[in-house]
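Hi R.,

Here's the chain you asked about this morning:
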Amino acid sequence: MSTFVVSARKYRPSRFDDVVGQQHVTNTLKNALRNDHLAHAFLFCGPRGVGKTTCARILAKVLNCRNVTEDFEPCNTCDSCTSFNENASFNITELDAASNNSVEHIRALIEQVRFQPQQGKYKVFIIDEVHMLSQQAFNAFLKTLEEPPPYAIFILATTEKHKIIPTILSRCQIFDFKRIQVPSMVGHLEEICTAEGIKAEPEALHVIAQKADGALRDALSIFDRMVSFNGEQIRYEDVITNLNVLDYDYFFRTVDAMIAEDQSQVLLLLNDVINKGFDPDLFINGLASHLRDLLVCQDESTLSLLEVSESLRDRYRRQAAQATPSFLLTALNLANDCDLQYKTALNKRLHVEMALLKMTYAQHAVDLARNGVTSASATEKKTPDLSKEPPKTETNGSSKPETTSKPAEVKVAEPTPQKEGPENTATAKDTNTTSQEDVPEHTSTPEAPEKVPTPPSPEVKPEPPKGTTATPKLGGVNAMMKAFKEKQASEEKERVTEELTLDNVKAHYLKYLEGLEQETARNLLKSVILSLEDRELTATVSSKLVEGALRQEQDLIQSIRDNFGVEDLILKVVIDKSKQRKAPKPKKPLTNKEKLAKMYEQNPNIKELADRFGLRFDD
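And the predicted structure, written out as tokens:
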């Protein structure tokens, strides 16, 4: 049978100094041992695979070690340490709360607490995944956890601290374990490679550490898998193939193509990634991480946030110098939106391609928006200068103009509102019309007639060369929007408003009620009585219910203002208490005598019957 032991067990730390990335916990525990200031209950919280159970075992071993070192580490040579390493110690009890979570299991544990340790000073109870205990088990454990015997110490470990009841938390000394950083994890893997005689590329170890997501146990499991695949050499290409990780070279080439605005190269790179079996969402997520790394590379103070090998740092710096922060932020935002909407997209590949194309031209759009390219020469057609003398034209094939006819009157259409400028005296769409009605048949004037200027020929825009994509000009859109707003404002000023009278307001109010969708609100608001005094519109309502319905119609007062052109009109709501329905007074219950008298009053025959037979009311 094979004697292979996985690295997570073989290289499990046996001393506090060997624990990776949790120095804040180990130093505190060692100082507590040094000062003899040790609590009776501990709670170790943190993600999986960060050393919670390992620190609990080392602490339990130190408490019963007979030859503790000067820095309060276990000697690993005495009888207590040897028996613990061989899982034969009776002073240390480990309980898995995931499978032993009932009241009976906790009662059995409490029974063991009553017995003193056979050898050593302390009896240590390690309860792993303590959040799995039931509510009844927690309640049964409370009293023992609060006041245990002087020789009993409890160490609880959990990955979900929020599931533990507050009464347990208040009785424990809590230690929060953090995720192990990539550099610390890579250093530990390098030590294992040295001990095992394995050659590993630094980039390969960084990929393993990043894939582990802060859990050293996961990193060691991946490391064992890579050793089984490659033998005594771990290469970067083999790691990314086995772990289904995209090569960082794809992201470098994609960003280079985006900076150069080469959309064809970007789409070809995505196609290559998909053909290799990777999901498009995986590519967009990896690209977002790459853009984030480039962003932190642009400042020396944030360079420490870059978790890559030293050989890649220079490459990140070079590409970060070519990209602007505005481009990186815009592309990062587009990648995030693409990832959020990826699950709901029907055509997922097209969804990712659209996001990549937006990133490709993101810098161009940002530059246009920042520079404000809205000049008339770039966005509008050139118009003729009517102040200059127009060119002479020949009529009826003769070089001399007719002197017997009056020149036609020239009417120039009003120009569309444009931006102010020396060149914007007329628009390209100005047309010159000649009125034939004003021309008399025979006149005799010695003056030469004025010449009608010929309309300018429309400006012909050159077509873009084949293979290139024309980028829309933001300045033209801005000019069009400004012209539209100015035209709309002029129309608002020219609009004839109705006279502000009470009858007109009532008519507009009823018309507004007809447009309401809810019939209940329409019926309530029909009972409102309107009165007008100067610029104050008073609405008299019969109850608070009608008042609330009226105040919910926030567009009503603005609609009246716009219709009558009175912006300072005020709406005042008044409740007429006289129209409120008074609640009926509760009826007082009648006594038996009152009921009998009521019956006599309604039917006199009953009284006659009672008198004839001598019937009397019995109290």
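The chain has five domains: 7-176, 182-242, 248-370, 502-579, 589-619.

Let me know if you need anything else.
M.
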